Batch of 4 targets.
Target 1
Amino acid sequence: MHIQSQALLRGHLPFENEADTASGLETARFRILIVNEDMRSADSLKRTLNDLGYFATCTAYSAKRALAVAADFAPAVALLDLELPDMTGYQLAGRIRTHLSRDVRKLPLLAIAEFPLHGTAELTRAAGFMGWLPKPVEPLALNALLGKLQTGAWS
C-alpha cells in the first residue's frame, strides 16, 4: 500500500483567500482509493489526481488488495478499473457492498472503463457505482465528479 499526503509540503498553496485555502485543504485530504492492475495507468491517474490537488491516495493493483486496504485507508471514494486480474470491477463492487465494515459498504464507487460498451452507464449504476469515466481519464471530467461528491451535489 502506498499512501501519499503532501498537500502542505509543496511550499505554498495557490489560493487567493482563506475560504479557498480551506477548500483546497479539504481537497488535499480527500482520500481516494485507486484500483487498477496496470501500474502505468494507475500512476497516470495518481498524477492526474495530484495535479487536481488530491494528494491522499492509495493504489491497489488487484481487487484482493483493494479489499484488504479499504477499511484501514478509509477512502472517501474508490476509483475502480472494470478489468482487474483477479475479478472484474463489477464483482469487486459487489464484494465492497457486502463488506463487514459499514464504512466500506457505503463507499462511493466510480468505474474506470478502458473499453466502454453500449450500456456501460446502466451496468455500472446497477452494480452500485455512482458513475463511470472512460480511459484515458479526462482530468476535467474527473474533477467535476469528485467535486460533486465532495459537496454532496451528486445526483
Note: The chain is about 45% helix and 15% strand.
Target 2
Amino acid sequence: MDFATRLLRLSPSPPRTVIRARLDAGTLPPVSSRTWVRRARGRHRCACCGRRIRASAAECEVLGPVKPPYAHMQCFRVWAEESRRSASDSERRVPSPSAPMVRRALAAPFAGSRSD
C-alpha cells in the first residue's frame, strides 16, 4: 500500500496535498460548475478519499464529461478550492502579451523578413 493510500485511511478528511497531487496528475478531474448536492443513499464512494459516503450524509455529484464522481461535502470543498487553484496556476503559466520576454519577441523582426 502506498503512502498516499495509507494517509487517506488514517485521516478523517483527505489531505489537501493528496487532492492537489491527484488533480495535477489527472487522476481526479477538476470540479465543473455543474454540481448536485443531495442526501446520500450509501451507494457511492468518495472520489477524493475513497471512503463510502454513508446514507443520509450530504453527497456532491460533479457533472462532467466522464462518469460523474461523488464526494463528501468536506472533501468536495477542498477539491473545489484546489481545482480553482490549479486553474489559476495554469493561467499564470501562459505568458501574457505584456510580459517582458513576450514584448521583446513581438518587437524583434521576423527571421524571414527583409528590412530593405
Note: The domain at 3-85 is CATH 3.30.1740 (first zn-finger domain of poly(adp-ribose) polymerase-1).
Target 3
Amino acid sequence: MTKLIVYEPIDQQVVLKFSKFSLQKGTGTDNVQLYDGQNETSPSLGVYSSDTTPPPSGVRSSSNELFVIFKTDGKNDFAGFQASYLAQKPTRE
C-alpha cells in the first residue's frame, strides 16, 4: 500500500488528473482511493480501478489537501497509472 498527501496553498484546490490508468479488474484487487482531506477518514472522492476509471477531467478536492492511497493485491502485472496534479482557484457554483 502506498499513501500520498498533496498540499497546496490555502486558497487553492487540488486537481488530480490521470493520463494513463491500467489496473487489474475485479473486487479486492488493485485500486486508487482518493480522499478530500489529509487522511483516509476524510470524505471519499472515489475508488478507482479498471472497472471504474477516474474521469478524464480529473478529480478536484474541496480544499487545499488531497489524500491518495494505492492498494495492490500483488498479483499480476499491469501498466499501472500515471497522474499529475495542479493547484487551481476554487470554482464558483
Note: The longest strand covers residues 13-22.
Target 4
Amino acid sequence: MAPRSEPQPALGQAIRRLRKERELSQEELGHRAEIHPTWISHIESGRANPAWGTVRRIARVFEVRLSEVVLLAESIADDDKAKDDEPQPQGPS
C-alpha cells in the first residue's frame, strides 16, 4: 500500500480535541512534545500530515496510547463521512 501524503483532517481534529480537553495551548503542547507550535497548528488545521513518531510524542503529552488518538480520529472521520452521506434538503421548487 502506498503511503498517504495528503493531510488527514480527522487526525488534526482529534489532536485539537485532546489538547483543548487538557486546556493546553498549541505553544505548550509543542513545547512538551518538542514540536514547533506552527507545526501543531498545521496538523490541527489539516494542512499537514504528521509522521507516526510525531503523533506518538503528542500522545505521550496527553498521557494516552497512540491507538486512542487513532480511534478518536477514525470516529471523527466516520462522523464526517456520515454527514457527507446525508441527503441534502431540497430548496423550494
Note: The chain has one domain: 9-77.
